[in-house]
């Protein structure tokens, strides 16, 4: 009696019909993606905690998400586990952790008192974060990168934007009453941060190989970092307010450094003559 199906041949013609065989994936390739997934979980948990009026835990969850999202790429490079899948996962995590989560946390805590204006401000920030991340991804994929891309960001980076936009929440934790006047001020501040995200403002990144520290300053800087972390653990919201103000005050200095080098106040195009973006219409207009 004939069998209805031909016997399976491991390396014969029936092998292709079964589709690609599953392969074992090294554990080191999964670790960065797991960190990214944990970052998304932290960001979404921050949104839930905000709706439950547990605002301090919500902000901590968003900041933890930003931290995890900031280290997953570095872990991938250290473990030589970079992949296109990981890059796509990281982009999806960024829009959740740096765009949606901070916008909803600040809306639930404060901006809802400004009614429609507060919601519009939250929408503007979330969309601006998405545009900022899209522009970053496009610039990162260029084959010929301008020399300044390792030294300057175009606009405030999304992780810093998430930290900056939560300033009204930090102030609320320090005793500032979330009144309607404060809500309108917070809405204007949120729109301002959104503008900084999509602007052409040159922001010093500190990642350039030319950025060096004198040998005699290494130990004092490390000690200062320890003091900063200790203060952050003890006086979290005071230190966060100081950090936000210090970051905002540093922006003009980065722009002035750019102006001295390239003679313009904003990054209007590639400052490197070797980079051709004649076909990059979206990049030039954004």
From TrEMBL:
It comes from Rhizobium calliandrae. NCBIfam families: pssA (TIGR00473). InterPro entries: CDP-alcohol_PTase-I, CDP-diaglyc--ser_O-PTrfase, CDP-OH_P_trans, CDP-OH_P_trans_C, CDP-OH_PTrfase_TM_dom, CDP_ALCOHOL_P_TRANSF_CS. Keywords: Lipid biosynthesis, Lipid metabolism, Membrane, Phospholipid biosynthesis, Phospholipid metabolism, Transferase, Transmembrane, Transmembrane helix. The gene is pssA. Pfam families: CDP-OH_P_tran_2, CDP-OH_P_transf. It is an enzyme of class 2 (transferase). PROSITE patterns: CDP_ALCOHOL_P_TRANSF. Residues 217-252 form the CDP-alcohol phosphatidyltransferase C-terminal domain. GO terms for molecular function: CDP-diacylglycerol-serine O-phosphatidyltransferase activity. The keyword Transmembrane applies. Gene3D superfamilies: 1.20.120.1760. The chain crosses the membrane at residues 29-49, 55-71, 92-110, 116-134, 154-176, 182-201, 213-231. It comes from the Bacteria. This is CDP-diacylglycerol--serine O-phosphatidyltransferase. Belongs to the CDP-alcohol phosphatidyltransferase class-I family. It is a multi-pass membrane protein. It catalyses: a CDP-1,2-diacyl-sn-glycerol + L-serine = a 1,2-diacyl-sn-glycero-3-phospho-L-serine + CMP + H(+). It is found in: Endomembrane system. Its EC number is 2.7.8.8.
């Amino acid at each position: 009696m004939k069998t209805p199906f031909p016997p399976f041949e491991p390396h014969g013609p029936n092998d292709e019909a079964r589709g690609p065989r599953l392969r074992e994936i090294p554990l080191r390739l999964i670790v960065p993606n797991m960190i990214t997934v944990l970052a998304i979980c932290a960001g979404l948990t921050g949104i839930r905690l905000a709706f439950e009026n547990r605002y301090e835990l919500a902000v901590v969850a968003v900041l933890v998400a930003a931290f995890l999202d900031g280290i997953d790429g570095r872990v991938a490079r250290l473990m030589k586990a970079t992949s296109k899948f990981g890059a796509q996962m990281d982009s999806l995590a960024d829009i959740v952790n740096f765009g949606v989560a901070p916008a909803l946390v600040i809306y639930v805590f404060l901006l809802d008192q400004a009614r429609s204006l507060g919601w519009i401000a939250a929408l503007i920030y979330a969309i601006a974060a998405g545009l900022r991340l899209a522009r970053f991804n496009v610039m990162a994929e260029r084959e010929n990168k301008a020399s300044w891309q390792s030294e300057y960001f175009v606009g405030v980076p999304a992780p810093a934007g998430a930290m900056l936009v939560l300033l009204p929440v930090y102030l609320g934790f320090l005793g500032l009453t979330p009144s309607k006047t404060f809500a309108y001020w917070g809405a204007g501040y949120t729109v301002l941060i959104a503008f900084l995200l999509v602007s052409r403002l040159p922001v010093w990144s500190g990642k350039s190989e030319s950025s060096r520290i004198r040998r005699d300053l290494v130990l004092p800087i490390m000690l200062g970092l320890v003091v900063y972390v200790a203060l952050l653990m003890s006086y979290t919201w005071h230190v966060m307010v100081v950090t936000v103000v210090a970051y905002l005050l540093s922006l003009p200095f980065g722009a002035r450094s750019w102006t001295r080098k390239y003679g313009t106040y904003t990054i209007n195009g590639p400052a490197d003559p070797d980079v051709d973006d004649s076909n990059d219409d979206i990049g030039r207009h954004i």
